Amino acid sequence: MTQIEGSKFLVIGGAGFIGSHIVDQLIDGDAAQITVLDNFVRGKRSNLDPALASGRVEVVEGSILDQELVRRLMDGCDGAFHLAALWLYECVHEPRKALEHNVVGTYNVVETAQELGLPKLVYSSSASVYGNARTVPMTEEHPFDNRSMYGATKIAGEQFLRAFHDQHGLEYVALRYMNVYGPRMDDKGVYVSVIVKVLDRIARGERPTIHGDGTQAFDFVHVSDVARCNLLAMAAPASDAAYNVGTGVQTSIRELVDELLEITGSELEPEYLPGAHMFVTNRLGSTEAAERDLGFHAQIPWRQGLRTVARHEALLR
Q1: Interval 191-204 mean pLDDT
Q2: CATH-assigned architecture of domain 193-217+250-283+305-312
Q3: What is the model's pLDDT at position 317?
Q4: 130, 150, 191, 243: the active-site residue
Q5: Average pLDDT over residues 127-135
Q6: Are strands 57-61 and 79-82 parallel, antiparallel or unpaired?
Q7: Could you state, in order of their start, the residue ranges of all structural domains in the chain?
Q8: Is 117 exposed, middle or buried (0-12, 13-18, 19+ CB in 10 A)?
Q9: Mean pLDDT, range 170-181, rounded to an integer
């Protein structure tokens, strides 16, 4: 376990959607120094503007494929958060690049953490490792039934961590995120992009679109809760384990769109289009293990959380 106050952290992928919120919360938790490593393919420097004002954040542009750079930045840290990865559709269309960044890059991070004796590594995994839910809610014992390259790379990362824990004593926690949404999100996430796309269409006065019948249902968890869980995982005594990070509440795409129309005051009606290919159509994670071992319980209900996105997009009525 690593306390947040007064400690030094490396946040790999720290300019991204989730990473930048982790940086913000590390600042709020009085971390002494935070180094952000990001290649700025998806991350944005503007995401770090609030944190940079603290004077405790250093930003380094670079790649996890540069192991010497990772070693230099990680040396002397009390903990590291590893979030850097190609996303689902990038992995579909560029599988070799996914192998390089998500697998080889993650191996570089894990190996470096072991060599330097890093006190703890928190790894961003994904509920994609499960595939479609066979039973709900899915516990961490749910079998891996992934059918995507992205999920395969996340499984590989978890297995590297398990092997390095057994062989070298590396302390880590892996976090399997459900469907993360919130301020700073973009339209690249497969299962949450509907939120940004619906808000964009409402802003243009166009009917929001729903692919399929809208019954696809997921566990939507707010990014501020996800960031808080990362800090709890760093500070908790738990190690050598993976945990679901979600709300335990399942919401359909139709419910999501209806709520966005309601909170923006729009009278537009959704337009239904033929179903697009989705790797998963049913997802709900058990929250019991994370609450028991990490002290994590999601605090932001999805209806309240959607208002933070609409406010960010300046569409809240």
Answers
A1: 82
A2: Alpha-Beta Complex (3.90)
A3: 46
A4: 150
A5: 91
A6: unpaired
A7: 8-181+221-246+285-299, 193-217+250-283+305-312
A8: exposed
A9: 97
